[in-house]
Structures are given as structure tokens and as C-alpha cells.
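Predict the 3D structure for this chain.
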Amino acid sequence: MIPSIEWINNKVKMIDQTVLPHDLKFLEFEDYRDVATSIKVMNIRGAPAIGVAAAMGMALATIEYKELPKEKFLEKMEEVANLIRSTRPTASNLFWAVDRIWDIISKYPDDPPMLSALVVEEAQLMAQQDINVNKSIGKNGAALLEDGDTVLTHCNAGSLATVQYGTALAPIRAAIEEGKEIQVIADETRPRLQGARLTAYELQYDKIPVKVISDTSSGLIMRLGKINKVIVGTDRVTSDAVFNKIGTYLVALAAKDNDIPFYVAAPTSTLSLHETVKDVTIEQRDSSEVSNILGKLQIVPNGVECLNYAFDITPFRLVTGIITEDGVYTPEELLKKYK
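Done. Predicted structure below.
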């Protein structure tokens, strides 16, 4: 699969995911402000991918401001960090990435030009590390899948949600690479239809068998015995729950009721185990995403209010295992290892 984001000649190049699956279009940015906007309007999305985008946005800012005096440079970079942090409030990777870049800035504040080179190098390193982490998640998760399994996934946590390879789709890719026959059923994932538009697109691109279902039918499909495992991604893991795309909680409830293992693919950069659900702000997006289908067809009468929470909360009691780059853990084991 084509990388979702790259650093090329001091520019950030990314796939515009808002026009998929009809058009494979690339965006290039030299200005960190444009990168911040691209995160906010979801040209790029998926926790790991927006984390790398945040780091690359910070890198662009250091290039713009590297000739400023130290005090002014630090003042501007703080403004940049706050702008990027404000784009998406729920995903841990965004804040993790900004903090990782800021840690470098805090260690070498006296030489902005040298600092800029270090930040650019770090952003590129983070992109490669994301690919490596995803492949490790794939290897660890593949052991959970048996030849002939059909896996349900919700939203898109594949190559498009990361730099490349994916998190929730990584075990599927790895299992297929091992010679197992695996099929995927993807929830459409209203209101932005990431499952229908993105998961189906990239799996078809890679010739992995996939079918799309409406969100409301996943429980029935499980009850009919057509699902063997569920694997989803995550934007944040607290000490008591998993935060993933809206609708994940309902999928987890249905899986529990039908004795189907429910796994979460979670790179350690998404772990925020010092927090509980009470500490997390759940992003609410514009109501027009619900009242209109992809901004093109209005399906709700004028004057009717729509609620549009982007994420929901899946409690640990519904989670069979959490797949990280280090291994597969129950929620209790995860807390013991990382908290």
C-alpha cells in the first residue's frame, strides 16, 4: 500500500483521504498551518497517522522560524504546538507526537537552525518507527487468527490510518503473508463511512477479500455465525477503557453476547494509562456530517438537531485482548506492564 504520509524535500506529502475511494489524490504542504488544517478536516486521519503529521507539521514550523532569535523562536514554536494540539482532542498520538518533538526543542533551545535539522530527522524517524511498530502488531496479532477466519473491523485502522501497513488490519495482513486464508467484513462506519470508503478501498487494492455491511447489521452477522474474530484500532487507551470510532462500543457488546473474541490493536503510543474515562474529551464534530451523506445529500429535515460524537468508550470488561508491538495482553496484564 502507498504510504499515507511522507516527508519529501522539506515538504509533507499525504493522501487526501476525503476523496477516496473515487480519486487517489496527493496533497503537498510546506506550511505547518496547512498541515494543522489537514488534520482538522480529516484529509489525514487515524491516530498513528495524525501523530506523524503533527510531528512533520512541527518540523515545517522549525524551518520557517529557525532564523529567529532564541526567545522568539521558542515563542513561535509554542504557538505552533498549541495550534496542532487543538486540531483533534481525543487521539493520544497527536499529543504524544507534539510532546516528543517539544522534548527535543527543550534540550537544544540555543541553536534554532541545528534544532530544526534535529526535529526534521526526528519526524522522519517517527514515520519509520510507525511502520515497524505496525508490523510487530501484525506479527503478534496474526497468531490469534486461524486459517479460514472471517474478521470484523470497524472504521479504518489500516495502512491509511497509519504511515503504512496498519494496526487493526496488520494482523490480517501478517496472517495472509503466513499463508492463512482470511476474509474481512468491514462496518461502513457512519457518518464519515471510513469502513466503506477506506478499509474496503485499501483491502481491495491489496487483493484481500472484503465485504462491507451497514453498521446496524453487525450484530445479526455475528449471531448468524459469520464472524470469528473482531479486531479494531484505537485512538486512546486509558486505565479503564478503549476510545475508538463511534459505534465500537455497540460492536463490542454484540461480540460479548455472541462469545466472539474482541481485540484492540493499540501501539504503545496510544496508551494513556494515567487517565480514566473522566479525563478524556470526546470530540464532537459538525452536525452536518450526520444530517448529510458526505456533504452531498441531506437526509435529515431542516431544523432537526443532530449529535455527532466522533468517538465512544468501550470498557475493558468487553475487551478480550489488546495487541501492542510488544505482545498481546488482557487489559489487566496491560496495566501491570505499562502503568
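The chain has a mean pLDDT of 95.
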